[in-house]
From TrEMBL:
The keyword Membrane applies. The keyword Membrane applies. Pfam families: DUF7224 (PF23866). This is DUF7224 domain-containing protein. Residues 253-383 form the DUF7224 domain. Keywords: Membrane, Transmembrane, Transmembrane helix. The chain crosses the membrane at residues 26-47, 74-97, 103-126, 133-152, 182-203, 210-233. It comes from Streptomyces flavovirens.
Length: 402
């Protein structure tokens, strides 16, 4: 418990910034320290099993079954693991937890607990063979390694879905944890759990125990691989869009349940941004969705201003060793759009040089700004067009407008 508490506090201290007040995100992010929980529980199981073996309790008068004897030692470890999972969820939950609609994702919590039980099962098997010191040490190191190492691999990328880390980067408001990822975790863990139960109940039938335990664990592994391989790095899937609430037109503002409490601000600031964009001849998006739950004015203005423009690189930019000057243009167009919408320069997160150049473009007449925008958007969409970002190049348009 001491090791587990220290691990929870240490690993949770720097990971809460990526969590948004959305239960799918909170629950998924809380699995980032699952490796610590499962490793410690596996070590506890190895410790308790080694104590039973060293006491030679199996040679005493058989008034209790092996399953009951071992269960009395391992159930407390399993309870500790369950409490640790909920403690991790509480650590990652925002302060205003009562204001978050819905409930924690039970699928994520169930998959996480399956991982814990699988480590307890392996800890039991290790404790039967190793001493009270060596077994727990092996489970701590091995469990920690298995819990964090797959997520650091580029290949095979699907391996992270077997240890419960596949959904650790989920979720934006338009995402939910992947059912296939959770299924792969449960399938792999269930194979190990059942193999442990077989080892307990068939303790006096060595050959049958080995065959059945091997078959069950390999079957669980095969099922997990079938589910996980198509996913690659992906641990999320699209959220049910029927939950969106939309209002207005041109732009139509669509909000998720977590955003509804601030609906008036979203709608008002989105319309404000659209009016300013039309002044310089830029059409706003037909429909707007937002990634933030509790935004400020500048964030909404910037998001509304940039959501109507596609900045996806053209096919020519995706060829090997391709030169794409559109990146340079997009780097200034983004803050320019935000400034047009009314966002304050100090609130923008783009490079300072790009923001300063965008401010100079904003000093030109609307017609010149529209010409600047159209000219540089050609560079974004065509690899052969060099950008022309200097406001001085549009001086003739400025004099004509005057």
């Amino acid at each position: 418990m001491v090791i587990l508490l220290a691990g929870l506090l240490f690993f949770s201290s720097g990971n809460k910034d990526a969590v948004i007040p959305y239960w799918e995100s909170i629950t998924a992010q809380s699995t980032l320290i699952l490796a610590v929980i499962s490793a410690v529980c596996g070590a506890g199981a190895a410790w308790e099993t080694a104590r039973l073996r060293e006491s030679d309790i199996s040679t005493w008068a058989p008034s209790r079954t092996d399953l009951r004897i071992i269960g009395e030692r391992l159930v407390p470890v399993a309870i500790v693991g369950l409490l640790a999972i909920f403690s991790s969820l509480a650590i990652f939950s925002p302060g205003a937890i009562l204001d978050v609609p819905g409930w924690p994702n039970l699928g994520v919590l169930s998959a996480a607990y399956a991982v814990v039980l699988a480590h307890i099962s392996i800890g039991y098997l290790i404790g039967r063979k190793l001493s009270r010191l060596l077994g727990p040490a092996l489970m701590l190191i091995g469990g920690y390694f298995w819990g964090f190492w797959p997520a650091a691999l580029a290949d095979p990328s699907w391996l992270r879905h077997l240890n419960g880390q596949g959904v650790g980067d989920c979720c934006r408001l338009d995402q939910v944890p992947s059912t296939r990822s959770l299924g792969a975790t449960v399938a792999f863990s269930s194979g190990l759990i059942v193999a442990g139960l077989i080892a307990i109940t068939l303790r006096h039938h060595a050959r049958r125990r080995l065959v059945l335990a091997s078959f069950v664990s390999l079957a669980g592994l095969a099922g997990a691989v079938v589910l996980a391989v198509p996913l690659g790095f992906t641990g999320d899937q699209a959220r049910d869009r029927s939950l969106l609430w939309c209002t207005g037109s041109r732009p139509q503002v669509c909000l998720w349940p977590e955003q509804r409490a601030r609906a008036d601000d979203f709608v008002h600031w989105s319309h404000e941004a659209s009016r300013e964009l039309r002044i310089v001849g830029v059409e706003p998006a037909e429909s707007i969705e937002f990634a933030m739950v509790a935004p400020d004015r500048d964030s909404v203005l910037a998001a509304a201003a940039t959501s109507g423009i596609s900045f996806d690189p053209p096919s020519c930019a995706q060829e090997p060793y391709a030169e794409y000057p559109g990146d340079e243009a997009a780097l200034v167009i983004y803050p320019w759009l935000a400034l047009v919408a009314g966002a304050q320069p100090r609130s923008l997160t783009w490079p300072e040089e790009a923001v300063q150049l965008a401010q100079k473009v904003r000093e030109m007449p609307p017609a010149s700004q529209k010409q600047w925008f159209d000219r540089n958007m050609r560079s974004v969409r065509d690899c052969s067009v060099e950008p022309e970002l200097s406001p001085a190049a549009y001086a003739s348009s400025k004099r004509g407008a005057s």
